[in-house]
Amino acid sequence: MADLYTRIHARAKELEPEIARFLCDLIRTPSHSTKEQEVVAVIDREMRALGFDEVRVDGLGSIIGRVGRGKRLVAFDAHIDTVYPGDRALWRFDPFDAHIADGRVWGRGASDQKGGLAAMVYAGKIMKELDLAGDFTVLFTGTVIEEDCDGLCWKYLVDEEKIRPEAVVITEPTSLRIHRGQRGRMEMMVHAKGVSCHGSAPERGDNAVYKIARIALEIEKLNARLADDPFLGKGTVTVTQVFFSSPSACSVPDAASIQLDRRLTVGETIDTAVAEVKEACRRAGHPEAVVEVLQYAEPAYTGKVFPMQKYFPTWVTPAASPYVQAAVAAYRAALGAEPVVDKWTFSTNGIAIAGLAGIPCLGLGPGHEKEAHAPNESCPVDHLGAAAAFYAAFMAQLNGR
Questions:
Q1: 63 pLDDT band (50/70/90 cuts)?
Q2: From 4's CA, which of 11, 77, 190, 256 has a CA 20 to 30 Å away?
Q3: Chain-wide mean pLDDT for the chain?
Q4: What is the per-residue DSSP string for 104-143?
Q5: What is the mean pLDDT of residues 132-152?
Q6: Dihedral sign, Cα of residue 139, residue 143, residue 147, residue 148
Q7: Residue range 229-240: average pLDDT?
Q8: pLDDT at residue 2 in the model
Q9: Using an 8 Å Cβ cutoff, are 72 and 80 in contact?
Q10: What is the sign, positive or negative, of the torsion defined by CA atoms of 112, 23, 68, 59?
Q11: Which residues pair with 264 in a beta bridge?
Q12: Does position 48 have pLDDT exceeding 70, yes or no?
C-alpha cells in the first residue's frame, strides 16, 4: 500500500519540529549512567501525553512504553544515559544548552543517543494514529547504564522481567543506515606481582612494572595476529590503563596491572581471548601473571545492583533474516531510497539482546556514530523525522501492509 507509506512519511515530516523539541528537552536533562531518574520523568510525561497504552519503569530504572496488545512482541530500544561532557573548553556552547541551529539539534546526547529515543517515541505516536501495531505488542525501552555497561539493562529485562521480543530494533546512530551487527568486546586486567625494596638497590627486589611492561609489549604484538572477518572487520586488543603499587616513590613497585580493551570479531569468544592473553604473558616470560575478566556491580539509580561480567559477545543478524528484509522494504517504501546495510564500529545493547539472549537485532538511528562522545555533538533534524518514519514503516511491513 504505497499510500500508507506516503502517509507515514508525511506524518513523520510534519512531526519533526515536535521531535526536535522533545530531543532538546532530553538534552537539557543530564542523565549520566546510574543518574537517569530525571530524564525518565521527562520521557514518562511525553509518552503519556502522546497516548501510549502503558508506561512503566522496571526495577533497574529503565522506562518501558507500550503500544498495542497483539500476541506477537517487538521492541525498539534507546539507551537514555550519556557520557560526561569532558573538557568544557572543547565545546563551543554549554553541552546541556540544547538548541536548534543550521538544521541540527546541538548538545550532549543529541546523537548518542537521545535522538533515537525522541524519534522512536514519536514513531509510537504514528503507530497509534495509523493503527500500525496490528498483530503486535510494541515496546519502546528507554534503557539505563548502557554507557557504563552495555547490555546490562537488556540482560535485566530478559532475565528478571521475562521480556523476550521476537526482534529488537536498536536506535543508536547509524547515519540512517540499517545495521545488522557489531564486534563484541571484553574488559580485562592483567596483574603482575613483584617484591619491593629500596630504590637505591633495585637488585634486592623484583620490579613488577618491568614485568607488566614486557607483557604490554606482547599485547601490542598480539593485536597484529588477531582474526579478521569480511563483514565485521578485525578483532583488536590494546592497553588502555596502567596501575602500580609501591611503598614509596623511592621503592621498587611490588605490583602492577594493565587494563585491556578487547574487541571481538566473528569466532572470537571469552575463552579464546583469555587464552591469547595468557599466551602473551608466557611469551613475555611471566606465565604466573593473572588474567581477570572484569565485573560490573554498580547500583542503579533505583538502588538495584545487578552484577554482570564485562564480556559483551559479538553478534550478527544474517542479511537474509526476515527482519532485515522487512527493514530494507520499510526503508524503500517510507524513505524512497535504497538503504545501505552495514554494521556498528562501537558496541550497543545488542550484545545482550542478540549476543547473550539470541534475539534477532537490527538497527537504524538518527545522527552519526562519529558524533558519539565527541564535543559539540549534534543530530540533523531531518534524520529525526526519517528515523520515525522508518520505525513506523517497519511495523507496517511486519504486519504485511
A1: very high
A2: 77
A3: 97
A4: EEESTTIIIIIHHHHHHHHHHHHHHHTT--TTEEEEEEEE
A5: 97
A6: negative
A7: 97
A8: 61
A9: no
A10: positive
A11: 184
A12: yes
Report which residue type is found at 104: R
- What Å distances lie between residue 3 and 97, 290, 382, 395, 401, CA to CA? 39, 63, 21, 15, 11
Q: Which domains does the chain have, with CATH numbers?
A: 2-183+314-398 (3.40.630.10), 186-296 (3.30.70.360)
Cα separation, 320 vs 72, in Å, equals: 21
Is 280 within 8 Å of 222 (Cβ atoms)? Answer: yes
CA distance 384 to 24: 12
Q: Residue 294 pLDDT more than 70?
A: yes
Average pLDDT over residues 373-378: 98
| Whole-angstrom distance, CA of residue 52 vs CA of residue 55 | 7
Examine the residue annotation and report whether 146 is marked as an active-site residue of this protein: yes
State residue 137's pLDDT score: 98
Q: pLDDT at position 310, please?
A: 97
Inter-residue contact 281 to 222 (CB < 8 Å): no
Residues 201-231: b if buried by 16+ CB within 10 A, e if exposed:
eeeebbbbbbbbebbbebbeebbeebeebee
User: What's the distance, CA 363 to chain centroid?
Assistant: 11
Output the CA torsion 266→148→357→259 (10° steps). 40
Residue 206 bears catalytic tag = no
At residue 1, does pLDDT exceed 90? no
Catalytic residue from among 16, 46, 77, 81: 81
Q: Is 314 helix (H, G, I), strand (E, B) or coil?
A: coil
- Residue 162 Ramachandran class (φ > 0 left, ψ -120 to 50 alpha, else beta): left
HSE of 126, CA atoms in CB hemisphere, 13 A: 34
The phi and psi torsions of 317 (rounded to 5 degrees) equal: -95, 125
Planar angle of CA 120, 140, 26, nearest 5 degrees? 60
Q: What's the pLDDT score for residue 225?
A: 97
DSSP string, 233-291: ---EEEEEEEEEE-SSTTB--SEEEEEEEEEE-TT--HHHHHHHHHHHHHHTT-TT-EE
Confidence of residue 324 (pLDDT cuts 50, 70, 90): very high
Angle (CA) 87 20 36, round 5°: 55
Q: Which of 146, 150, 187, 371 is catalytic?
A: 146
Cα(178)–Cα(350) distance, integer angstroms: 14
Q: How far apart are CA 154 and CA 132, in angstroms?
A: 25
